[in-house]
């Protein structure tokens, strides 16, 4: 029994190393890589690691190639999914600004992401640019869109159509964003706004 | 079938194909296509088609209709999820919001990825060894031959004779190596870097390492590095990946030293 616990403990520590330590140019680890390193019960090990990380306000987040994260998944889909360690609770608005994000850059990203989500995951670049140019100069709009493509928040296909790329899918809670925009989470948003003013 | 009527019917099918393709490429509402009606038309025309080209056109139309039906399924699925909202409403709301409000919103929905970067002790040791074995730049420059005053021409045969040029072009050599990489990774999808470059002589191993660097640079293959295990794998690309379609390139120095080659030889024999 003690040996079992020790073995699981070793696996959790190994999972932490694998997930924290950047292995590829893109962060995160594929399910099949975790399976290879941790064995068949890798999902349980990851779940246990996530529970331990919760006390540090961190979590293991699974991003599947397609679809909603709540739906039933096959073993193959788990193996193809990418696992990341992310913050569990939101940062304060002032922390976001302090982490190097300019307020207008954040606004550009939110507008772009929300617009793409509302257009069923795809939007022509010129449509997004037209929307952003109502409030920001063209050079800034173009610069920011290119930057978000480079950092993995957005992708652009050969027809100049923008879509949400891996970083948005890993870091942004799309459903909550839509609820906030539609005014369904007013209290939450007002508290966040107080944070900006302070 | 009269020729004029045949032309009209062919045009009709071409227009249907065009409509279906527009729906697919521009993301238009797939329910704009009257599938039921089009299927009725196809059923009506089918007995009259005699020429092979017409039958192929009929099949192409049916294929496009199948794509639209599949898009209709996706469209319904999307609208039944909680992520569906009226895009115009979202646009209107976004236009009315200030930057601080949008930032507060972002803070609430953003869970940034946490990751670490670092060097292992072994990698540091390798770097130190590399530095210690590296001849100074001045010495390396001294070894370069002096440029001669006289200029002349030399034939390709002469270059081959002097072993400055191979009989095969560089592209051919890379292609052969790419095929070898594909063959050797057919079962597992990847191969350990040293296993692939290892040859019976040290010189040939270095030559293979040199060629592998071009395979990666030119997009014939990718390199997978496991920093924890400090293992490097080669994965062949199915097709040549153009540099423009790849992400930003990085350089990875790998020491192909005689000692590692010797150890590899001992393990193999």
Distance between the termini of chain B: 77 Å
Number of domains of chain A: 2
Share in β-strands of chain B: 5-15%
Residue stretches of chain A low in confidence (pLDDT < 50, at least 5 long) are: none
By helix and strand content of chain B, what is the structural category?
mainly alpha
SSE succession of chain A: HEHHEHEHHEHHEEHHH
Computed CA radius of gyration of chain B, to the nearest angstrom? 31 Å
Q: What's the CATH H-level homologous superfamily of the largest domain in chain A?
A: Winged helix-like DNA-binding domain superfamily/Winged helix DNA-binding domain
- Major beta sheet summary of chain A: 3 strands, antiparallel
**What is the CATH class designation of the largest domain in chain B?**
Mainly Alpha
Describe the structure.
- With about 200 residues, chain A is of the alpha+beta class.
- Chain A has two domains: about 1-90, Aspartate Aminotransferase, domain 1; about 95-195, Winged helix-like DNA-binding domain superfamily/Winged helix DNA-binding domain (Arc Repressor Mutant, subunit A, Orthogonal Bundle), CATH 1.10.10.10.
- Chain A has helices spanning about 1-20, 30-40, 40-55, 75-80, 95-100, 105-120, 125-130, 140-150, 165-170, 175-180, 185-195; strands spanning about 30, 60-65, 80-85, 120-125, 155, 160-165.
- In chain A, strands 1-3-2 form a three-stranded antiparallel beta sheet. Chain A has a three-stranded antiparallel beta sheet with strand order 4-6-5.
- In chain A, a hairpin with a 4-residue loop joins strand 5 (about 155) and strand 6 (about 160-165).
- In chain A, helix 1 (about 1-20) packs across helix 3 (about 40-55) and helix 6 (about 105-120) packs across helix 10 (about 175-180).
- The model of chain A has no long low-confidence stretch (mean pLDDT about 85).
- Chain B is mainly alpha-helical.
- Chain B has twelve helices and three strands; from the N terminus they run H-H-H-H-H-H-H-H-H-E-H-H-E-E-H.
- Chain B has a three-stranded antiparallel beta sheet with strand order 1-3-2.
- Chains A and B meet through helix 1, strand 2, strand 3, helix 5 and helix 6 of A and helix 4, helix 5 and strand 2 of B.
């Amino acid at each position: 029994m003690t040996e079992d616990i020790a073995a699981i403990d070793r696996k959790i520590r190994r999972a932490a190393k694998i997930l924290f330590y950047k292995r590829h140019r893109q962060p995160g680890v594929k399910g099949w890589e975790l399976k290879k390193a941790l064995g068949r019960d890798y999902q349980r090990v990851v779940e246990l690691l996530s529970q331990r990380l919760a006390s540090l306000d961190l979590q293991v987040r699974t991003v599947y190639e397609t679809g909603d994260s709540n739906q039933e998944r096959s073993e193959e889909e788990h193996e193809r999914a990418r696992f990341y360690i992310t913050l569990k609770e939101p940062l304060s608005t002032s922390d976001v600004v302090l982490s190097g994000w300019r307020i207008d850059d954040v606004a550009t990203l939110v507008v772009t992401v929300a617009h793409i989500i509302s257009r069923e995951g795809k939007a022509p670049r010129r449509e997004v640019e037209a929307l952003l140019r109502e409030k920001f100069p063209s050079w800034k709009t173009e610069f920011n869109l290119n930057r978000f493509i480079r950092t993995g928040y957005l992708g652009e296909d050969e027809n100049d159509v923008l879509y949400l790329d891996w970083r948005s899918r890993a870091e942004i809670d799309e459903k909550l964003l839509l609820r906030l925009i539609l005014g369904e989470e007013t209290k939450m948003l007002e508290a966040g706004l107080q944070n900006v003013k302070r | 079938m009269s020729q004029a009527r045949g032309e009209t019917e062919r045009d009709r099918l071409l227009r249907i194909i065009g409509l279906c393709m527009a729906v697919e490429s521009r993301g238009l509402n797939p329910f704009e296509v009257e599938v039921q009606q089009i299927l009725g038309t196809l059923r009506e025309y089918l007995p009259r088609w005699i020429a092979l080209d017409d039958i192929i056109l009929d099949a192409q139309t049916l294929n496009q209709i199948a794509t639209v039906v599949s898009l209709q399924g996706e469209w319904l699925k999307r609208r039944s999820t909680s992520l569906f909202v009226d895009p115009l409403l979202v646009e209107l709301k976004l236009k009315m919001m200030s930057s601080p409000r949008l930032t507060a919103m972002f803070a609430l929905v953003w869970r940034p990825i946490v990751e670490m970067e670092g060097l292992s002790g072994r990698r540091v040791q390798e770097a130190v060894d590399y530095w210690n074995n590296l001849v100074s730049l001045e010495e390396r420059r001294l070894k370069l031959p002096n440029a001669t005053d006289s200029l002349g021409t030399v034939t390709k045969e002469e270059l081959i004779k002097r072993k400055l040029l191979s009989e095969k072009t560089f592209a051919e050599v890379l292609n052969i190596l790419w095929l070898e990489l594909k063959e050797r990774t057919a079962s597992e999808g990847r191969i350990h870097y040293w296993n692939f470059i290892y040859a019976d002589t040290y010189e040939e191993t270095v030559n293979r390492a040199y060629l592998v660097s071009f395979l990666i640079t030119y997009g014939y293959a990718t390199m997978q590095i496991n920093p924890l295990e400090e293992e490097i794998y080669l994965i062949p690309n199915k097709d040549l990946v153009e540099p423009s379609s790849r992400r930003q390139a990085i350089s990875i120095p790998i020491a192909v030293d005689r000692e590692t080659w010797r150890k590899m030889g001992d393990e193999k024999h």
